[in-house]
């Protein structure tokens, strides 16, 4: 269980903490960096997202290696498949974020359209990460380790944070739309 235990820790750190914080930075209501410039918020967002991706890649590498050591098949459960898709998606989303730093690379796209697509696809990736975490909480390992009320409380964490993030992203979008008119 020593090597394996790093997998849930790193994935929870990546998707429940770092990515959540990276998305909340842009919230006009809940951001700790509310008074900072957009440029600072973007840089902090980038750092947190990069750390989240590194934790996710390390978590994926650890579980892959652990399965290999134990002669177990990998990517055969809904959690494994969703987790792989989530890490690949997060990698692509980070690459897409580079386009926002260098929008001239996308000559036929406006910066506003790039931001909208990045935010929307980022929300999809975040929800995918939450779904993967919840599927992991349905695994035999988790359900034998965490029981009764604790299991339900653990399951509420990604569910509630995903609702908060969806609300914050939609509010930030509506706030920006209203301030443009």
From TrEMBL:
Gene encoding the protein: Cyb561d2
Enzymatic class: translocase
Entry's transmembrane regions: 6-26, 46-65, 77-102, 123-143, 149-169
The protein's name: ascorbate ferrireductase (transmembrane)
One cellular-component annotation, GO: endoplasmic reticulum
InterPro entries: CYB561D1/2 (IPR045150), Cyt_b561/ferric_Rdtase_TM (IPR006593)
A GO molecular-function annotation: transmembrane monodehydroascorbate reductase activity
UniProtKB keywords: Electron transport, Heme, Iron, Membrane, Metal-binding, Transmembrane, Transmembrane helix, Transport
Main location (coarse class): membrane
Residue ranges of domain Cytochrome b561 in the record: 1-176
One Pfam match: Cytochrom_B561
Membrane-topology annotation of the record: Multi-pass membrane protein
Record-listed E.C. numbers: 7.2.1.3
CDD domains: Cyt_b561_CYB561D2_like (cd08761)
Co-factor(s): heme b
Coiled-coil residues: none
Domain of life: Eukaryota
Electron transport as UniProt keyword: yes
Subcellular location: Membrane
PROSITE patterns, sorted: CYTOCHROME_B561
Gene3D superfamilies with a match to the protein in the record: 1.20.120.1770
């Amino acid at each position: 269980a020593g090597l394996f235990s790093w997998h849930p820790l790193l994935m929870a750190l990546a998707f429940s903490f770092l990515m959540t914080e990276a998305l909340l930075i842009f919230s006009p209501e809940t951001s700790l960096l509310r008074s900072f410039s957009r440029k600072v918020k973007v840089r902090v967002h980038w750092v947190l997202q990069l750390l989240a991706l590194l934790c996710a890649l390390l978590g994926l590498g650890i579980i892959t290696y652990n399965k290999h050591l134990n002669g177990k098949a990998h990517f055969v459960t809904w959690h494994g498949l969703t987790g792989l898709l989530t890490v690949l998606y997060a990698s692509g989303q980070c690459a897409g974020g580079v386009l926002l730093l260098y929008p001239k690379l996308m000559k036929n796209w406006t910066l506003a359209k790039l931001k909208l697509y990045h935010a929307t696809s980022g929300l999809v990736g975040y929800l995918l990460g939450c779904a993967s975490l919840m599927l992991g909480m349905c695994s035999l390992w988790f359900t034998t380790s965490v029981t009764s009320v604790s299991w339900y409380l653990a399951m509420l964490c990604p569910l509630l944070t995903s609702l908060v993030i969806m609300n914050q992203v939609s509010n930030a979008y509506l706030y920006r739309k209203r301030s443009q008119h």
